[in-house]
Each structure stands twice: as structure tokens, then as C-alpha cells.
Amino acid sequence: MGVTKRLTAVFVSAWAIAGLLNNTHAQSTPFDAESPMLRNNGWTFAIGYHALSARPDSIPAVYQTIRTSGIVDTLHAGMWSHSGNKALRLGIGYWGVVQRPLIWDRWFIELQGTRNASASKFDGLVANSDSILQPNTLLDSARSLVTTELTFRLQRAFEIKTDFFFEAQLGIGWDREWGSTFSRTGPDSMFVTRAAPSTDRVALELGAGLGVRTRSGRYLRVHATYDGLQLAPLAEEGDGRVQRYEGRYQPWNLTLQWDLLRSKPPADCAKPPSQDRPSEVLFGDQMKKDRQKQLKKQKRRAKKKRW
Questions:
Q1: In what order do the strands lie in the sheet with 133-143?
Q2: pTM value?
Q3: What is the pLDDT of residues 177-198, one digit of tens each?
Q4: Which distant-in-sequence residues (6+ apart) come within 8 Å of 105 by Cβ?
């Protein structure tokens, strides 16, 4: 599937899912942007599981060339096996509630960190300098000291019942490999030349999860995400898999999110009301004028009584 078709499919799917769920569930979103007690933004923290899964994890490989004499020469023939890593994932972010939600009711900006590593091994026959096939191996390895992901996400929640909800997500994230090492060891001259993996990636991210509002008023969510479409560099297959020499790997995450809520400060009658709490106007301009008139009348009446 081409990149354009894949991108279109991602957005159509997101709109279709949101529309279907919105029509199916009569309950509104559990997130209220006009809450009189709580702010409509706050911090979020995440801890979870990150995986870089090989897709596929093994594949046969044969590399043949044709000499000028017309003879077919086999440079290697064997099997590639690929494996990715699993690691802890930690994150911090900031979130807010959309004032007038049409599809998405919340936005998130998050920075998360983990570690990526992958290895690909070729086992089989490789031609030597005399073009004789002999058993040999080639090893591709890639590893980062830290992998960071800066993501902007849009989410929509659908109530299952009071305080419990399902959520869907669409996001775009930038991944950066810090302290990365990439290497090929073995008879690589007998293999197709591959560019070194990119240390930066931009991808569209899809996700879904379940959440609950706790007694303290905060939100606890279990959320799963994966890269649906890799934008930069473009994936060879037009999907979300990461290219590491011969191997392709699908990043995905399962995280526990803790969304903190902040209480609004108590109303202060001596100060003008905040824009998001207009109902707290206790002493507006007109009320002040009326009060001044009343005081003047009271003074005049007090003077008359004295006389």
C-alpha cells in the first residue's frame, strides 16, 4: 500500500471509529471543560512497557548476480532471523480539555523515554573470494543509549458507565535515538548495501485504552499505542515499521497513565472574576453603582432625622 493511501486509511479509520462510537454511546465525554471546581488542564505521568517487535522475525534470502559471460553467480543463500528488544518506558506530559469537543475532547503533549535495540543474523552460505559458497554469518546490530519520543496526541473518551470510559487516540510523534551504535559484522560485501538506520523518525501513532476516574478525582488509564504510518524516513512498505538494515521492526507501547487534576483557587470577591468562572461576579460595576446610591440615600435620611 502506498504512503498516500496508507495516510488516507489512517485518517478515515480514526474518523469512522470516532463517529461510530459517538453514535453508539449516548453518554457524553466524562471530561468537563467548564467544571466549577477543577481546572481544565494538568500534568500526566506514565510508566509502561515498550517493545520493538520484528515483523517478520525470519525470512529466506538469496542474492544472485549475472556475470558478463551470462553465468548466474550466487553471492549468498540462507536465512535471516530478526529480534527486537523490550524495555521500560517512562514519561511526563501536559494535557488539557477541549472547550467545545467535536471529535476529540482532550489534547496531550508528552515526552517519554525508553531504549531501543535490535539484531539481525544471517546464517547460510556465502561466496568467498573464489566464488565458492561456504558456511558463514553476517550480524547487524543497532542499539541506543536512550530513545526519546516527543508526541502530540488527540484523544476522545466514551463513557462505558459512570467513572469508566473507553478512549481512542490519534497522534504524531518524533523519535530520537541518543548515543546510538549501528554496525554490520561479517562478509557484508556479498550482501546488498544498506544505509545506516536513521536516528530521527516522525510517525503517526494510533492508540486505544480504558480509564477510570478515581475517588480523588484523578484519572487512571491503561493505554496501548503503535506506529501506524512512518512519515520520515518513509518506510519501504508504507507502514509504521522501522528499518534496521535487513530487518523491519514495529514499535508499540503499553502504558499506565496517571492524569492529575488541579483544583481552582477559591473565589475572591475583592478581585475581578476569572474568565472561566463568570458566574462568580458578586460585585460588578452596576452593583457597585447601585450600592453607592443606596449609601447616599441612607446618609441623607440620617441627616434629616438629626434635624
A1: 58-66, 72-84, 117-127, 133-143, 181-185
A2: 0.74
A3: 999 999 999 999 999 998 889 9
A4: 29, 31, 97, 98, 155, 156, 157
